[in-house]
Amino acid sequence: MWKVLLCEDEPVVRAALVEQIPWEQAGFTLIAEADNGADALELIRSLQPDLVITDIVMPGLDGIELLQQARAFSEARFVMLTCMNEFEYVRLALEYGASGYLLKLSADEKALGEMLGKLDKELKEQSLHQGSREPFRFQQEYRELWERLLSGRDAATGREEAGYLHRLHELYPLAEVRVLLPACRKNAEMVEAQWKQALPSQCLLHRVDHSGVITFVVWMGSAAAPPLPQQEEPLQPEPGCAIVRRGGSSYLGLLELWRSALLELNSLWYEDGGAAGQEERAPGGQGTDPQPGGAEEQPQERTACIPAVGWSLSWSKEKRWMRCLEARDREGLRQLAGEIWREMRQAFVWFFQAEGMADRLLTLAAHVWDRADPPTVDAYAGAGGHIALKMRLEEQLDRFLEELYQSERTDTGREEINRVMEYVLLHLKEDISLRAMAHYVNLDERYLSTLFSKQTGGTFIYFLQQARVARAKSLLLETDLPIREIGEQTGFANENYFYRIFKRWTGETPAQFRKGKP
Predict the structure, then answer these.
(1) Close Cβ partners of 275 (under 8 Å, ≥ 6 residues apart)
(2) At 217, phi and psi to the nearest 5?
(3) N or C: which end of the chain has fewer CB within 10 A?
(4) What is 348-382 written as a DSSP string?
(5) pLDDT tens, residue by residue, 417-451
């Protein structure tokens, strides 16, 4: 309980405040009363209250002078009692560090309760940070928890010294962990603001960001504290924003709450989001908020799989990815992405590590394809599950390739011919015929052949061979791919045909061309 001294020179007002304020309910206890500033100053010196509620206008030592002199030996919070015509005094009191003020004649029970709730939170923060030069060093302890969680080490090996979170447990006996769903991260700021507004004043909200995962830890002053509400507009149609765990708030207990919530979310990820983003996920597996309790919730059956520790992409797969990028092999990239995604699923790697893999693969594509604008997290943000993330990756790769080929193509003045040329450049590896292209642009085959020659100055076969040889030349100069593989990547039916066409266009065989490169 926080200790309170009440100083008011009017007995009727003082008695009304004593009776009207819900002291115990708000976490305060009234330890002394005074009817003048001089007596109040001595009581502050001897009793060291946490909160002083004092009238501003009193004979002798007034409330502002009391505040100024008490500051020399007390860190007590001050709330000033005032009348309607005394706001100049209120302004001075606030400048000297008063926490707030109350109007004597209009302060009802609700206003008094809100003021005490605000002060309770301030006093708890002051107590936690007292003597510390780093008021937000709790983030370091959250990081330690995070690293321990990822390492897979037994929770029993956690820190034992009484750190910030240990002391926090003494003031807030219950914790709630909320891990934001990937699809809802774009609304993180809005969610945080709404939750802060909805929380009772006795609660404390911490936001923790690691590896792209946003976690909110709600510290509650009692087990009866109400849960955070489900979201209203404008977050629809995603009313459920987080996986929720509530239970004991010791340091190691918090680790288990966090681990359990992340494992639940990881399982939903590999169900391709399941119902994630559509309903609130509580420890019981239902769409309702968890019931408060004194012990940690047990992990659900779906969280039985434990993510592999230290999983990474093999060098052989990364090398294949680079080769597919260099060859602009769209289908090869898709096939390899499928293999990587299956491997991650089998290892049950953390969902944020899967997002990191998508980021790495896109970054490599941007580097090889010489993009001026590297991909950002927006390229895959909002993917609610493992398959959805792979689809986002493929969409981005397709967009990169289309933009790359668009920058290289010549506008012929006819949209149908432009589309044919773009298709050819995007699908050089495939078996491409004039008949298939006529069907693609919905034109007669003979008419397309005539129109293509008219708009480009050469036949369709001429353009197709030219494009394939040009791409083969780039691969011969820029990569160490085997010649046979380059022929396959550029759509030549066999190695002999590749040699013959390449020499017709360049006067050299592929091997001679590569040997003579600068």
Answers:
(1) 268, 281
(2) -110, 120
(3) C
(4) T--HHHHHHHHHHHHHHHHHHTT-SS---GGGTTT
(5) 988 988 888 888 888 999 999 999 999 999 999 99
Q: List Cβ neighbours of 276 (8 Å cut-off, separation of 6 or more).
A: 181, 182, 183, 240, 265, 268, 269, 384, 385
Q: Across the strands, what pairs with 101?
A: 80
The phi and psi torsions of 351 (rounded to 5 degrees) equal -60, -35
**pLDDT over threshold 90, residue 399:** no
CA distance 32 to 18: 11
- Give yes or no for a cis peptide into 237 (omega within 30° of 0): yes
List of residues 6+ apart from 464 with CB closer than 8 A: 424, 432
**What's the length of the chain?**
518
Residue 375 pLDDT level (bands cut at 50, 70, 90):
low
- Asked if residue 510 has a cis previous peptide bond (ω within 30° of 0), the answer is no
Q: Is the torsion defined by CA of 159, 163, 165, 167 positive or negative?
A: positive
* Three-state secondary structure of 32-100: EEECCHHHHHHHHHHHCCCEEEEECCCCCCCHHHHHHHHCCCCCCEEEEEECCCCHHHHHHHHHCCCCE
Alpha carbon distances (Å) from 101 to 50, 115, 160, 202: 16, 9, 42, 19
Q: Model confidence over 68-115: pLDDT tens digits? A: 899 888 888 898 888 755 666 677 777 677 777 777 766 667 777 778
What are 402's two structure tokens? 């289309």
For 199, the 3-state DSSP assignment is coil
Assess whether pLDDT exceeds 90 at residue 405. Answer: no
pLDDT at site 434:
92
Question: CB 356: neighbour CB atoms within 10 A?
Answer: 14
**CA separation for the pair 474, 494 (Å, rounded):** 19
Measure the CA–CA gap between 474 and 407, rounded to whole angstroms: 16
Which of 445-452's residues contact partners 24+ apart within 8 Å by CB, and which partners?
448/416, 448/420, 451/414, 451/416, 451/417, 452/417, 452/420
Quote the DSSP letter at residue 292.
Answer: P
- Residue 158's alpha-carbon distances to 219, 259, 303, in angstroms, are 20, 14, 22
Pull the structure tokens for residue 518: 């600068």
With a cut of 90, say whether residue 339 has pLDDT above it: yes
Q: What's the number of CA atoms in the CB half-sphere (13 Å) around residue 385?
A: 14
**How many whole angstroms separate alpha carbon 119 and alpha carbon 208?**
25
Question: Is residue 101 within 8 Å of residue 80, measured between CB atoms?
Answer: yes
